[in-house]
Model the fold of this input.
Amino acid sequence: MKRSDWRSQWMLVKDYCRMGYRRVLVYMAVLGVLEGLRPYISMILMGALLDAVYAGKGMEQLLMLTAAALGTEGVMALINGFLYKGFNKKLEYMYEQQNALLASRCLDMDYEYLEDPRIHEALHSMKNANTNQGLMGWVLNNWFKMIRAMTAIFAAVIIVIPMFVKNTPVTDGILTSWVSSLALVTIIAAMIGLSYHMDLRYGIGIKECNERRASHESVLEYYMGIFSGCERQKDLRIYGQREQILASTDKAIDHAQEEIDCAAGLAVRGEVIRRTVSGLTGLLVYAFSGMRAWLGLISVGNVVTYAASILRMSTAVAELMSALARTKNHSRYCQDYVEFSQLGKKKYEGTLPVEKRRDNRFSVEFDHVSFRYPGTEEYVIRDLSLKFVIGERMAIVGKNGSGKTTFIKLLCRLYDVTEGAIKVNGIDIRKYDYEEYCRLFSVVFQDFRMFSFALGENIACSDAPDADRVRDALNRAGLEGVLGRLPQGLGTYVGKEFDEQGVSFSGGEKQKMAIARAIYKDAPFVIMDEPTAALDPVSEYEVYAGFDKMVGNKTAIYISHRLASCRFCQDILVFDKGQVVQRGSHEELEVQPGLYRQLWQAQAQYYTRNFSAPLANDSFSMLY
Done:
């Protein structure tokens, strides 16, 4: 056993103690001691009772010994019952507590880890450690067994010492000398060592099975998400992918089941070896103690007491070895937990407060910024240097994979730059307090999510929304008429997962809700990554035409593939292969040779002037 094996388990236990499990540790320790001592009380009293019967003692003394045995057992049972109640009360929900703890870690860790498939496999590995009581329950039960076994070994040694010290010279007989005692101890130790070695070996095999199983269950989790989401079901039905998905699911289930069967087979083999060792040890002990009683070295009652104690001790030693082997195996899972829990500490967390400005104007500089995603060698952003003053409208355009969304992730510090620095008001953003820096941004990502909460809670991101502010944000996002038809107003749930009276909103309505959520936050930066992808042409025009009204005097950074929608922005950045290759207004870029002009001309054939309504900035309306 290495020190790191214990340290990883202790770090897991400390985290649970902070969640209110200190009393459970006390219950576990006291239970372990009592359970270790409990069998010996009846052994000692039973041996004394047999000796009393053999010696012809009176009925009164026999009844007293019997009453003492039954009374002691009853008191121990009552104490154990009380402690087990407190111990098991927490263990019943240990698995749920584990998942809650892991979920909280996911909320705290750096965003980059959430896109790493290895992290999801580690999560499944920890969950697979013990599906009933979680990894913590597994560790606590194992510690309980170790304490019980060590207590039992200590008690047995105290009890059986007299049997081993009652020896005669070797010349009087090998069965009565210290040689026989030493031989018995050696044989038992060898058998227990074999059991420990096999436990360790099979435990490693089970861990490997669970690791392979975790990768398959990660695939299953993804497919289950497809099955449970009504939005994805539309694509499955239209494109006839049902058979493909079911075949992939069945394949993942088969592989996971193979690993479950493999782990179960290893566990059964280990149990067979443990039971065989236990049976052989019992046979040797009873034969040894019976022979010594036949030779007159111990009494008949001592045979019961000593033999039962030695057998219990050998079982306890085997249990201790098995528990140590499990500790070694558990430590691998606990090490996964420790590494997982420490993932959130990679990103440097600054302490500087962000400057408060009433005009919401901030200077932003990308100073020779390069970035590649973890685990890859290809740069998504390459030596990017640019400056802009916050308080204006900016558009970011470019082909797919040109680095547009990555640019926003870096600005919002979802990822830290690989090289260079991003500065706000001349200070590296890594030096700012992270939570305070995040308050600068309201972002509508193209893969945004609305949750199955009440509408008001979705917009305010709080269980105590300001109703007036929520209504204002919804109106500014183009949802003026939605509230009037909702059965419970702002209390109406988005979806029917938690409330039968919930409403299934359209994709366009949800997208406007996401925009309303960004407006409600009232942050200096409003960033919209394809905010109108799910909107019809009229709604799209309404968003663009009312863009100034929505964001007020804040900075608006807008990412789009539709160049016609970017014309109202004073500053347009054209991305290509991780670099800004052009910059200017639409009027300037339209006449310059370059990527923007190529993209504009490629899209212009799908647009025409709409002379039926005087649009601001001579905007274009798409024909469908």
User: Anything to note?
Assistant: The chain is about 60% helix and 10% strand. The two ends are 70 Å apart (CA to CA).
